[in-house]
Design goal:
Elements lengths: L1 E4 L4 H12 L5 E4 L10 H6 L7 E4 L2 E3 L2 H11 L10 H18 L5 H10 L2 H23 L14 H15 L9 H10 L3 H5 L14
Parallel strand pairs: 1-2
Antiparallel strand pairs: 1-3, 3-4
Helix pairs in contact: 1-3, 1-7, 4-6, 4-7, 5-6, 7-8
């Protein structure tokens, strides 16, 4: 199995957590987004969208983080990434959706670079901050009544795979204050005790700059 990844990509980060939770070995192939390697013709043969992550498993090529995670969960069902309870399953999908459609696209490298070039860096910061705070407010309300040790109980499920990278980026890249989101902050602290999450952390990746270690 091969994973095309970038150390700071939150989309790749969530897939690395899934691979780590499942105990799967894979070859890490770095794609430097800052150098534009995602636009290389050879990489675009793997993912025509020119984004990471992309997973190659034999003849199977998947280039969307949610699709990759669901593929891994069906092929390697232990530990499961979705709870048996139907309502909690729906909450997990809803949390994942808020991150992957309501927050992450607004902080995507291409988007914020475009805003900075066309307007200014202050507007870029305001744009990202607004997207994250709006999404975190929704997530806090969604999870406050069902969270346990983690997002939807005491077991790690899909929502946690999406929350951990998003909160990591919010704190470390965009200096978001987590005080208004106690449920999310509690979940994030719980991930620090889980080896699968720590092994997948951006600073632990082979393409991470030495200064982040």
């Amino acid at each position: 199995m091969k994973l095309y990844s970038y150390w700071r990509s939150s989309c790749a980060h969530r897939v690395r957590i899934a691979l780590s939770l499942k105990g799967l070995e894979y070859e890490y192939i770095p794609v430097n987004l800052l150098k534009g390697e995602q636009s290389d013709p050879d990489f675009k043969k793997i993912n025509p969208m020119g984004t990471v992550p992309a997973l190659v498993d034999g003849d199977v090529v998947i280039s969307d983080s949610l699709a990759i995670i669901m593929y891994l969960d069906e092929k390697y069902p232990e530990p499961p990434l979705l709870p048996p309870d139907l309502h909690k399953r729906a909450v997990n999908f809803q949390a994942a959706s808020i991150v992957l459609s309501g927050i992450q696209p607004h902080q995507n490298l291409g988007v914020i670079k475009f805003i900075e070039e066309k307007i200014n860096s202050e507007e870029k910061t305001a744009w990202v901050t607004n997207a994250i705070t709006k999404g975190f407010t929704a997530l806090e309300k969604l999870l406050v009544s069902c969270a346990g040790k983690h997002a939807t109980g005491d077991e790690v499920y899909l929502a946690d795979l999406f929350l951990a990278p998003q909160i990591y980026g919010a704190i470390n890249r965009f200096q978001i204050n987590m005080e208004p989101y106690p449920t999310l902050a509690k979940c994030y602290e719980s991930y620090k005790d889980l080896p699968a999450f720590q092994n997948a952390a951006p600073e632990k990746q082979p393409d991470a700059p030495a200064s982040t270690s």
